[in-house]
Amino acid sequence: MRHLLPSLPVSLLPLHNVISASSRHIKKIISGLIVIFVTIGATGCAIEPVPVSPQTTERLKSQPPIRFLLTFDDGPARPRTDNPTLSILNTLAHNPLQPGIKALFFVQTRSSGAGETDFGRNILRREIDEGHLLGFHTATPRHANHRFLSPEIFEQSLNDGIADIAAIQGSAPKLVRPPFWNYDKRTFDVYQQHGMHILLTDLSANDGKIYGFKASLRRRSNMLHLLTDVRERIAAGELPAVDGSIPVVVTFHDINSYTADHMAEYLQILMDCARAVQLPTATQPFYDDKAALEHAALARSMRDSAQVARLPGFWNWLWERI
């Protein structure tokens, strides 16, 4: 800007200086507000116990402890430096709560600039090498809704994605999470014909692909609200026990850098929320074995296209109208 000043009329220089100073001041104010809001979101939500009815308390006594089944959508992430997927893998392997956590990654094997590249495929190989499980999400260049693909393109994408995963994992995927959580009887039946079962979720970080400001100011209150609902479902006997514990499916997005930066905090939030809603956790609160992880995920998968889907956020409202 300095080299432009001589071209400005002298009478306008004071105005220019005022505008520049004001812009800098406004930027400082905005930056300060962002810091305040993020700090409140990070530290201002001490989780208080959530009231529970005597009836629910009594019913929970006959239920086994819960175990968090972590899932991640949309990866592998694209960045070559500070890659969110790699950061999440590091946190799962090394964290103060339970080192060596295993997760289920619903992957996009042919996403442009990511899953389709050698870099992206190497990330998927690392996931397998570190004992994680791959599920199918997409095998199209973009995050395409399978319901709106032609039957031919849909079929080809399934064949491509299954082959991609089998080449890396050594076996075809048994689990699928439809993009945008959206499916109908036709796509459900096609998934089943390919040996894949739909896994939805109980808890969602609501951290899908976000542009711009990625901070989540409600990560504690959101998880607490969702886990309170899970508590009532468990008390009602709606969630199955698998290998001595009740799998509670949790969804994150490993392409989100904010999620990656706060993954260890999210793990602690899950534990804090479980304590707050008075749901005991298993001795190992997260899955640490691929076979047990897959067994639990299959037990929680959708078995019938007519089964009522409980989708996170506004998705039930949206897909009921389309």
Topology:
Elements: H1 13-43, H2 54-60, E1 66-73, H3 84-93, E2 104-108, H4 118-129, E3 133-138, H5 151-169, E4 175-176, H6 185-193, E5 197-198, E6 203-204, H7 219-235, E7 246-253, H8 257-261, H9 263-276, E8 281-286, H10 290-299, H11 315-319
Parallel strand pairs: 1-2, 1-7, 1-8, 2-3, 4-5, 6-7
Helix pairs in contact: 2-7, 7-9
Summarize the structure in words.
With 322 residues, the protein is an alpha/beta fold. It has one domain: TIM Barrel (Alpha-Beta Barrel), CATH 3.20.20.370. The protein is 43% helix and 12% strand. The chain is built from eleven helices and eight strands. Helix 2 (54-60) crosses helix 7 and helix 7 (219-235) packs across helix 9 (263-276). 35% of the residues are buried.
Distance between the termini: 51 Å
Q: What is the CATH top level name? A: Alpha Beta
Total domains, how many? 1
CATH topology: TIM Barrel
Classified in CATH, the superfamily is Glycoside hydrolase/deacetylase
- Say how many strands there are: 8
The general outline is globular
Strand content: 5-15%
Characterize the main sheet: 6 strands, parallel
Low-confidence parts lasting 5 or more residues at pLDDT below 50? 1-45
Q: Helix and strand succession?
A: HHEHEHEHEHEEHEHHEHH
- Number of H- or I-type helical stretches: 11
Mean pLDDT: 86
CATH architecture: Alpha-Beta Barrel
Gyration radius from CA atoms, angstroms: 23 Å
Report the helical percentage. Answer: 40-55%
- Structural class by helix and strand composition: alpha/beta
